[in-house]
Amino acid sequence: MNKQTFEGKWNELKGKVKEKWGKLTDDDLVKISGKRDQLIGLIQQRYGYEKSKVEEEIKKFYRDNNLE
């Protein structure tokens, strides 16, 4: 899924993102507005993961939700 498609589907995906990464707040999700880079950064902050781990989790999230 490309960046524009992800941002366009953000409203549909917010609930699933919150289920997967529950440490993200509703305010976080509003601020992100579907921007993948910001999502990666916040997941890194909240969970203390390295960027490569977050990117792998995002890829798996895409696959699990038929977003590829």
List the helices and strands and how they pair.
Blueprint (H helix, E strand, L loop, with lengths): L2 H6 L1 H11 L5 H7 L3 H12 L3 H14 L4
Helix pairs in contact: 4-5
In words, what does this structure look like?
By secondary structure, the protein is mainly alpha-helical. It has a single domain, classed as Orthogonal Bundle (Protein Yjbj, Chain: A), CATH 1.10.1470. It contains five helices and no strands. The protein has helices at 3-8, 10-20, 26-32, 36-47, 51-64. Helix 4 packs across helix 5 (51-64). It is globular, with a radius of gyration of 11 Å. The model has no long low-confidence stretch (mean pLDDT 88).
The percent range for helix content is over 70%
Average pLDDT confidence is: 88
Number of domains: 1
- In DSSP terms (H or I, runs of 4 or more residues), the helix count works out at 5
Rounded Rg? 11 Å
Cα shape: globular
Which structural class do you get from the secondary structure elements? mainly alpha
Distance, first to last CA: 5 Å
User: For the record, what CATH class applies?
Assistant: Mainly Alpha
What's the total count of β strands?
0
Biggest sheet overview: none
Label the CATH architecture.
Answer: Orthogonal Bundle
Report the CATH superfamily.
YjbJ
- As a percent range, the share of strand residues is under 5%
- List the uncertain runs: none
What is the CATH topology?
Protein Yjbj, Chain: A
